[in-house]
Amino acid sequence: MPPPSLLRAEQTNTSVSFGDKLILKLYRRVEEGVNPDLELGRFLTDHAGFDHIPAVAGGVEYRRRGRESVSLAMLQEFVPNEGDAWRFTLDGLGRFYERALADRITVPDGAFVGRPLPELEQEELPDFILEAIGTYLPAVQMLGRRTAQMHAALASNTRDTAFSPEPFTPHYQRSLYQSVRTLARHAYDTLRDQLETVAEEDRADAEAVLEREPEMVARLRRLLDQTLSGMRMRTHGDYHLGQVLYTGRDFVIIDFEGEPARPLTQRRMKRSPLIDVAGMTRSFHYASLSALRNGNIRPEDRSQLEPWAHFWYQWVSATFLGSYLEEAGRPRWLPKTPEELDLLFNFVLLEKAVYELRYELNNRPEWAGVPLLGILEILREPLRVGV
């Protein structure tokens, strides 16, 4: 066994590598019940045969008589990589913005207007999009395929009640609506209380979000307008670009622990797989603005690049969604009709943005502008994913 080495990457757990063979992840936050990171990792490794995660070699659990076990650690395969997909994406965005500033990207009139995904799926991507965004688009298509394959693997066991998909019901839809409505109420209360902490450049967006609270509530209530088909199932639970490793040729999905701030019971709940798709879509939005605000971009150039950031986000999101749906086909775990698919996707996309807003206000108020802009864009122009 190679000697251990403490990994110093910023994360919510402590990880120790053993050369280029194994990684031992020690969980800092422990509760009774199996950690979903260990539970889903074992399932995908031992039962589903999903190759695009680090294979789980074992786990450490504490057991007491008459009580549920407590997950303490997980041992898994070390995957050689070039960093996570977040860094890979920021590098691509940096090159994209440099080319945009140098006027080396030519797009036709109207290219900054988003097109619904059903149109994109009927044709190959226009040449000017491939030329503008470059090699990142084929990578995004691959990520969409891997995401759909992950969901197919997670839905593959119909006998184990911990994994078998379950149908949506009117009772579940109402429960989901009430949960997200409560989340939105808390987020709005926090925004009102902490409005002065929002950066000056984002203050107008914050005030616009507050003004449109009734529209937000009405948008969420649409979930109750019809009974949805599709299934709820086990999902990644905290899916974004930082949870994916880029190997140079492919992607490997990591960290199935879910959002650490949530109780373990919530992290093990079955949800629509669209919650993961929405999480990745929101991550593209974060990346487009992070590279603009925190990259090597001069302040005087930012306003010129803002339309390009929106252009990049729209087309990358459309490409990811199209690839995901093409790979998934028409599985029973997705809504059957285009209208249901659009309704549910935009509901969970809004849920993610509202969750982000409250998190940023409480932890990183300088980042609150990203979910604020995201909420306004969703209310103004919902993404269409129905096919």
Can you describe this structure in just a few lines?
The protein is 50% helix and 10% strand. With 387 residues, the chain is an alpha+beta fold. The protein folds into two domains: 4-77, Phosphorylase Kinase, domain 1 (2-Layer Sandwich), CATH 3.30.200; 85-380, Alpha-Beta Complex (Aminoglycoside 3'-phosphotransferase, Chain: A, domain 2).
Description:
This protein is of the alpha+beta class and 387 residues long. The chain has 13 helices and nine strands. The strands form three sheets. A five-stranded antiparallel β-sheet has the order 1-2-3-5-4, covered by helices on one side. Helix 2 (85-101) crosses helix 10 (274-294), helix 2 packs across helix 11 (299-328) and helix 10 (274-294) crosses helix 12. The model is unreliable at 116-122 (pLDDT under 50).
Keywords:
Phosphorylase Kinase, domain 1; alpha+beta; 9 strands; 5-stranded antiparallel beta sheet; 387 residues; Aminoglycoside 3'-phosphotransferase, Chain: A, domain 2; 13 helices; two-stranded antiparallel sheet; single chain
CATH class descriptor name of the largest domain: Alpha Beta
Strand order of the largest sheet: 1-2-3-5-4
The total number of structural domains is 2
Quote the distance from N terminus to C terminus: 51 Å
Low-confidence stretches: 116-122
SSE arrangement, N to C: EEEHEEHHHHEHHHEEEHHHHH
CATH architecture classification name of the largest domain: Alpha-Beta Complex
The secondary-structure class comes to alpha+beta
How confident is the prediction overall: mean pLDDT?
90
For the sheet with most strands, the description reads: 5 strands, antiparallel
Proportion of residues in extended strands: 5-15%
Number of helices: 13
The coarse overall form would be: globular
Query: How helix-rich are the residues, as a percent range?
Result: 40-55%
Would you tell me which CATH topology of the largest domain applies? Aminoglycoside 3'-phosphotransferase, Chain: A, domain 2
| CA radius of gyration | 21 Å
CATH evolutionary superfamily of the largest domain? Aminoglycoside phosphotransferase (APH), C-terminal lobe
Number of strands: 9
